[in-house]
Write a structure and sequence with these properties.
This protein is α/β, with parallel strands linked by helices and 324 residues long. It has helices spanning 18-29, 41-60, 66-74, 82-86, 100-113, 129-133, 167-179, 196-212, 218-227, 229-233, 238-245, 250-255, 270-274, 280-297, 303-322; strands at 10-14, 33-37, 76-79, 91-94, 119-122, 142-147, 156-161, 183-186. It folds into two domains: 5-186, NAD(P)-binding Rossmann-like Domain (Rossmann fold, 3-Layer(aba) Sandwich), CATH 3.40.50.720; 196-322, Orthogonal Bundle (N-(1-d-carboxylethyl)-l-norvaline Dehydrogenase, domain 2), CATH 1.10.1040.10. Helix content is 52%, strand content 12%. The protein binds nicotinamide-adenine-dinucleotide (NAD). Nicotinamide-adenine-dinucleotide is lined by residues 14-20, 38-40, 43, 95-98, 102, 106, 123-125, 146-147, 149.
């Protein structure tokens, strides 16, 4: 019997890096007791500063009062002892490194230490739960609950069952995420990258191709993207965008020459004809060019300030969307 989503009052966040600490902010903000676990003391002390900075931003944006933020912070305890982290918790959100070997090791331990009715949800960005849950004695309680960074601000959570995940686990996870103010979407089939990262992989692959073959720089792509499609995508998904783009709606957008490669008007440019293939080696070389350009572009920028700016702006965008 799985836990009732409404009765979950404590969560273990396993892995306290970029995503793990942000889950902790969210769960404690909603009144839950949180145990933040990491193998590394250094990661936990870095999480301290990140937790404080995140609550400061939420207070500045009037999402919560300073007293509420202090109370939320006090509900989060940190530990490097996994048995202690899992003792008496009602839900586990795993955010360890994105490697099958490590995820399996973690899941073997989680399954041994957490009460059998507790859901073990993974933040994995692209991995298959079927491949992870196979090492556990209770695979039915293992599921993907994939957030977008930072999970305490961005509502999307993709819930993806593995082949051995029970329907009950999916329902509890979906209802719990909804209770946490998230916007859960349950994938109907398991797929690498789930839904959105499956699509984002294509976006990044083509962005690397454009930079690697000299069509545009990373800054030029970011500028064109955020002042164009990015603005619309903050409001609508790609299919709704397609519906509103052409007089003929979706039919025009999806079947016009941009997407229909059999069309006679679809003539490849010189760079497309002459570019080397998208082999793993070439993709890696193009990625190195992108990284070098991005690092040069941000050489004088404080990354922590940039993250604060991002979080403040995301909260403002959410306010604008909610105002409708
Ligand atoms: N960064 C993102 O934008 C993002 C978004 C959504 C999901 N995710 C997913 O979340 C997970 C974590 O990603 P991240 O960006 O927070 O990585 P990260 O490197 O920032 O954090 C990973 C943390 O796991 C810790 N760790 C290492 N071994 C561990 C173990 N055996 N048990 C517990 N913790 C361990 C590390 O010390 C580190 O603090 C990954 O599966 C990733 O795909 C990342």
């Amino acid at each position: 019997m799985t836990m009732n989503a409404q009765k979950i009052s404590s969560v273990a966040c396993v892995g306290g890096g970029t995503i793990g600490f942000s889950w902790a902010v969210l769960f404690a903000q909603h009144g839950l007791r949180v145990k933040l676990y990491d193998v590394s003391d250094k990661a936990l002390s870095q999480a301290d500063a990140a937790l404080q900075a995140s609550y400061d931003t939420l207070v500045d944006a009037a999402v919560m009062t300073a007293d509420e933020a202090a109370a939320a912070l006090a509900r989060i305890s940190k530990t490097t002892d996994l048995a202690e982290a899992l003792r008496d918790v009602d839900f586990v959100q795993e955010s360890g490194p994105e490697r099958y070997r490590i995820k399996r090791e973690i899941y073997r331990d989680l399954d041994r230490l957490a009460r059998p009715e507790v859901v073990l949800a993974s933040s994995t960005s692209a991995m298959l739960m079927t491949e992870i849950q196979s090492v556990t004695a209770h695979p039915q309680r293992c599921v993907v609950a994939h957030p977008y960074n930072p999970p305490h601000i961005v509502p999307s959570v993709e819930i993806v069952p593995g082949e051995a995940t029970s329907a009950e686990t999916v329902t509890v996870t979906r209802d719990f995420m909804a209770r946490m103010g998230r916007a859960p979407v349950v994938a109907r089939k398991e797929c690498r990258g789930h839904i959105v990262n499956h699509m984002q992989a294509v976006l990044y692959r083509e962005a690397l191709w454009l930079v690697g073959n000299g069509v545009a720089t990373v800054d030029e792509i970011d500028l064109a993207f955020r002042t164009g499609p990015g603005l619309r995508l903050a409001l609508m998904g790609p299919f709704m965008v397609g519906m509103l783009t052409s007089p003929g709606g979706m039919r025009d957008t999806m079947l016009d020459r941009k997407l229909d490669h059999s069309a006679e008007d679809d003539i490849p440019s010189r760079v497309e004809r002459e570019a080397p293939p998208r082999s793993p080696e070439n993709m890696r070389a193009w990625a190195e060019i992108c990284v070098a350009q991005m690092e040069a572009s941000l050489a004088d920028t404080d990354k922590e300030q940039l993250k604060k700016w991002r979080d403040r702006k995301l909260l403002q965008i959410l306010d604008v969307i909610a105002a409708d």
